[in-house]
Task: structure prediction
Amino acid sequence: HLRHGISDTWMTFDPDNPIDPLRRGFHALESLNEERLGPKMALHPHAQEEIEIITYVHEGALLHQDGTGGLGRLGPGEFQRASARRGSPYRAMNGSMIGPAHVLQSCIAFRNAGTRIPQEQRFFPLADREGILRIVVSSVGGQDSLRIDQDARLYSSILLPGHHLIHELNSGRGAWLHVVKGRIRLGDHDLRTGDGAALENEPAVSFTAQ
Result:
């Protein structure tokens, strides 16, 4: 947990903790930060320069600047894929002068060095994510998801109490489950707002909204 004035950053992985088995991330997922930004406050910077950045605005709005100096805005329910490279860092800040912003941002390692994929963002309505695992990022991209240069997928779901989801995993695949808001039951574990869980050598991810 880092505190910057009127902003809070909750880091899933702690690279400075030598006893944390996940200090270097999980598979291609190098970081997953939850940011609660005060008015006009900026996102916590990333030490890694060559990465794909996935940003999700849960509440509020975010102003961002890409490596070319172009400006843009992300609102609630919007996802963005951008690249941070040496000499062209990604910058973003709360777009409101009076209200807070709740943002989740993950960094994923490139699969192929030197790949150039244009920045994308897309709004995924709540209705399209309710009761299902809605794919929002994949290596294929297209009309159904944002494209990323990595053999990974990101799903988003809005669940009502009692909703149960099962996502099968192929051999050798890992899964990371993060609770943005609410409470779910994963096997023998209760996960609450802000909790995450890593799964490996499992046939499926199976969980129920509480």
Q: What stands out?
A: The mean pLDDT is 88.
